[in-house]
Amino acid sequence: MTTMQVAKYKGIPKGLEGDRAVAEAMRQMNPDVVAAYPITPQTEIVMRFSDFVANGEVDTEFIAVESEHAAMSSCIGAAAAGGRVQTATSGAGMALMWEVLWVATGSRLPIVMHAVNRSLSSPLNIHCDHSDTMGMRDAGWVHIFDENVQEAYDNAIQMVRIAEHPDVMLPALHALDGFIIGHSVERLETLPDQAVKEFIGTYKPKYSLLDVEHPATFGPMDLPDYFSEHKRQQAEAIQNALDIIVQVGKDFGELSGRPYGLMEGYCLDDADYVLVALGSTAGTSKVAVDMMRDSGVKAGLLKIRCFRPFPHKMVSEVLGKRKVIGVLDRSISFGAQTGPLCLEVIASFFTHGCYPKVVNYVYGLGGRDIVPTQICEMYKELVEIDKKGITGPVQRFFGVRD
Amino acid sequence: MALKGWHEILIGGMITDVGNSIDYKTGDWRSYRPIWDDKKCNNCKVCWVYCPDGSIVVKDGVMIGVDLDYCKGCGICAQECPQKAIKMMEETKLREAVK
Q: Are residues A39 and A168 in the same domain?
């Protein structure tokens, strides 16, 4: 969400947890099929949504499956049959979907997933980090992060338009931080049912298994003579999503007064020291930026909303000339130099010919709290790096006891 | 068949020209070839029933041979033939015999 603008529809103020806000968006979208399995901290989405189904408030066929592998497989079948299809999952559940996540993208089925971020075992932990969705980052899904409950609601609705766009035709997920957004009650404004219905329109698939007049085979065997060409199409489609995400975010702004882009800057124009963050931490960081600005430090924040496709050109343009950059990763890419977000940021700089000093903060694993004063410590480190002129270790495990 | 570029094909490997498997000749997968002895054959057509690839050629109700463009050499026909009229021979040995 960037700046407020005049809305076509007056919002309806509510107090909802992130999970319930997503379920509310799903009710308004009225998908043809939802196939899901309960898992903490996503359970409330399907729990609440199945109430809507039981009460006849939606027309959705709800498939209570025996596992997440079956959930995603059912979604694939229903999407190939021409339905508008959604699911929700977290952590280990997403991991169990792994094989079929790739089938969804390779078959070019615009399934929408509401992903509530949870760490991956072991050791067992139900709380938030980004290991689950980062683990599937190369599966080809459009991948957007929500900052708060309002964005969880807004992005849930936008995902449908992005996924189903003829130039994209890929599954899309939006990720909300487990518990931090999923289970926290915040004020948000929802749209009238009719507005959501108009915004997402009717899905008219070009091909479907149920169109017996035009029979089609989905997901056939593809040998070395064509597999590369189909993957090349997929690579093009996810790049196409960059423009579509911006267009859909603009349209959503006209509807709701809350336009969206690929990223959002906070106090960025004159900032020398910039942190880059995903999800709820971006919101926390805004408070830290204000605190740093009060003490005279030119601090700024870049929130990445769209992680896949990664807006590398824009990141390099916005950040390339800053003094020191700190990138916050809520997951580890074991054995890599940095976490997954920082790898993307550094690669963006390199390919576009800019070389600011960059450090990577791994933080908040397994749901460990991150608060504004801690983020201020990071800003102070960035200032220190600038003063000394020495970057030091690139990856830093923030707040981990020695 | 000329191979097409990525702009020219449907997304997701989708197939809309129904029945196009005829364009894909699977005979070159074969490592064993069915050799049919028409003297032993009593034309019961059990092989025709069992062949998973429709490679037993029948004309006017009579078995006339095997379509080697599609036969993968699975050997089911030879296994099922009540007259033992089909036997499987290694392609490499057949080729050597030709030389």
A: yes
Nearest-CA distance A166 → chain B (Å)? 11
Question: CA of A266: how far to CAs of A5, A162, A275, A348, in Å?
Answer: 17, 25, 10, 20
Are residues A207 and B5, on separate chains, in Cβ contact within 8 Å? Answer: no
| A335 within some domain | yes
Task: Give the closest of A169, A220, A236 to B13, CB-based.
Answer: A220
Q: Are the beta carbons of A207 and B16 separated by less than 8 Å?
A: yes
Residues from chain B contacting residue A230 (CB–CB below 8 Å): 6, 9, 11-13
Bond from prior residue into A110 cis (ω within 30 degrees of 0): no
Is the model's pTM score more than 0.80?
yes
CA distance B51 to chain A (A): 21
**Which residues have a Cβ under 8 Å from the Cβ of B65 and sit 6 or more positions away?**
B36, B57
H helices within A136-223, ranges in order? 149-164, 193-200
**CATH number of the domain at B31-98, please?**
3.30.70.20
| 8 Å CB contact between A66 and A101 | no
pLDDT in tens, A166-212: 999 999 999 999 999 999 999 999 999 999 999 999 999 999 999 99
- When pLDDT is averaged across residues A370-374 and rounded to a whole number, the result is 98
Give the number of other Cβ atoms within 10 Å of residue A105's Cβ: 24
Could you read off the pLDDT of A287-332 as tens digits, one per residue? Answer: 999 999 999 999 999 999 999 999 999 999 999 999 999 999 999 9
**DSSP per-residue letters across A165-189:** -TTT---EEEEEETTTTTT-EEEEE
Among the partner residues B3, B6, B11, nearest to A108 by beta-carbon distance: B11
pLDDT tens digits, residue range A21-74?
999 999 999 999 999 999 999 999 999 999 999 999 999 999 999 999 999 999
Range of the domain at A122: 12-256
Measured in angstroms, the CA of A8 and the nearest CA of chain B are apart by: 36
Token look-up 């700089």 returns A349
Q: Return the residue of A nearest to B14 by Cα.
A: A218
A108/B6 Cβ within 8 A: no
Does residue A169 contact residue A372 with C-beta atoms inside 8 Å? no
Q: How close does chain A come to B69, measured CA to CA in Å?
A: 19
Same domain assignment for residues A147 and A163: yes
CB contact under 8 A, B18 and A107: no
